[in-house]
Amino acid sequence: MADARPITDVVFDFCGVLVDWQCHCALDGHVDAGLVERICADDDPYGFFHYEDLMDGGMRLDDVLPIVEREQGKDIAAIYRYYIEHYGDALPGMVAGMEELLRDLKAAGVHVWGLTNWAEETFHFAFDRFPRLEGLLEGTVVSGAERMHKPEAPIYRLAEERFSLDPSTTVFVDDTAKNVAGAEALGWHGIRFTDAAGARDALRGLGAAI
């Protein structure tokens, strides 16, 4: 059933929701294929996801590299530096159907925003590669710039303040369950993203006129 109050704002995660992120695309052809597969595996034996998480929280590459070298050795640290410096290559495209969804929401009078766990040093690659995305979003909160992470409450509260959001008429769309739960705990509506069609249907179910 549609909510009694109309949806006024939709806040989107980036990687896996608005933009496709593929770790291996930044390393293919530069690093041995078997090593790339291990680096990008879900169990992440070389810690790249952990080191990215440190940067998402506000650490700079120059601060993280000594940690990588100490824990993984100089060769892996050099690969991590290359990966971060070529991060745009890990963004092969926008997620199918999401540009159209953003445009349809805006045409319906719904405000669209971004809220992402992303390093301040590499976030520019998203808009460098997809300038139309920057033009569609009305603002984005980037964790690395703010030194706070989803799903912690302060980053959602910051978005509320910065974008003048009313939680009861705001929807958060993210592909990670704990991040959706973090928003819902503060009174936002939440949608666990799988694809653009599913997000559109879920937004319609909440009363968005798209």
UniProtKB/TrEMBL annotation:
SUPFAM superfamilies: HAD-like. Signal peptide: none annotated. It comes from the Bacteria. It holds the Pfam family Hydrolase. This is Haloacid dehalogenase. It comes from Bifidobacterium castoris.
